[in-house]
Write a structure and sequence with these properties.
alpha+beta, 34% strand, two-stranded antiparallel ribbon, 155 residues, seven-stranded mixed beta sheet
């Protein structure tokens, strides 16, 4: 695992395009670009097998994106633990993130690792689609993609 560097930004853009359909991420009405996030990359040789990106707004650490390309191998957990370690080192009071109402796997993953639901933004995806119109109306498991759910871990 290594820290995301400026040299990784072109690959990060491509990674987000492949995984999130664009070269930027949107959460709670905020657009996140590769040059404005920090992160950690999990590697198998030179291959990216996991990535977590985050920012430090105020006294918080916000996870922007988290992807593990190999499930059930501990990659996602290791990435999240690195972010929590980084947040503590930067004296953050909490780590938080947003996901969508259809992302049941993410909701389970984060809660199993100590995160709690802390906010529901009803119909937030209507505003998000204004910034990123390619977001589908129907998400995972055929669930209408409407709301953002925020989870947090207090440190």
């Amino acid at each position: 695992m290594h820290r995301l560097t400026a040299a990784d930004l072109p690959r990060l853009r491509q990674f987000w395009k492949e995984r999130w359909d664009d070269e930027f991420c949107v959460a709670h009405g905020t657009v996140f670009h590769p040059e404005n996030v920090s992160g950690f990359i999990a590697l198998d040789g030179n291959d990216w097998i996991g990535l977590v990106t985050y920012t430090f707004p105020d006294t918080d650490c916000e996870i922007v994106s988290m992807d593990s390309l190999r499930e059930n191998e501990g990659i996602g957990t290791a990435l999240i633990e690195k972010v929590i370690e980084e947040a503590r080192a930067n004296q953050c009071r909490r780590v938080h993130l947003s996901t969508t109402n259809d992302n049941l796997r993410a909701l389970g993953f984060y809660q199993k690792r100590g995160f709690q639901l802390c906010a529901l933004r009803v119909n937030a995806m209507d505003e998000t689609r204004k910034l990123k119109p390619e977001i589908p109306l129907i998400g995972e498991n055929g669930i209408p993609l409407r709301d953002e759910i925020e989870l947090e871990m207090l440190l």
